[in-house]
């Protein structure tokens, strides 16, 4: 049987949420990720910029900021 992939990962580099190197808001896992977009979580400023550049090239930049994942799914970090 195949192992189920982790639910939350960086959409650019596939780093699991909470792993060493995943940037957290104020450095605390309880505060959630420091970076995210409408397509998912981003683990670092490097991945955030890479994702932004890809979206510019695709012409798919959103017109408004993505909602805070903590406000969408309060059970996200439990």
Question: How would you sum up this structure in a few lines?
Answer:
With 78 residues, the protein is an alpha+beta fold.
Descriptive notes:
- The chain is built from two helices and two strands; from the N terminus they run ββαα.
- The chain has a two-stranded antiparallel ribbon with strand order 1-2.
- A hairpin with a 2-residue loop joins β1 and β2.
- With 78 residues, it is of the alpha+beta class.
- 13% of the residues are buried.
- It is globular.
- The mean pLDDT is 87.
Helices and strands in order:
Layout lengths: L34 E3 L2 E3 L2 H14 L10 H4 L6
Antiparallel strand pairs: 1-2
* Count of individual beta strands: 2
Provide the helix percentage.
10-25%
Order of helices and strands: EEHH
Shape, please?
A: globular
If strands are numbered along the chain, what order do they take across the biggest sheet?
1-2
Strand residue content: 5-15%
In this structure, how is the largest beta sheet organized? 2 strands, antiparallel
Backbone structural class = alpha+beta
Mean pLDDT reading: 87
Count, helices = 2
Rg for CA atoms: 13 Å
How far the N terminus sits from the C terminus, by CA atoms, comes to: 26 Å
> What ranges have pLDDT less than 50 throughout 5 or more consecutive residues?
none
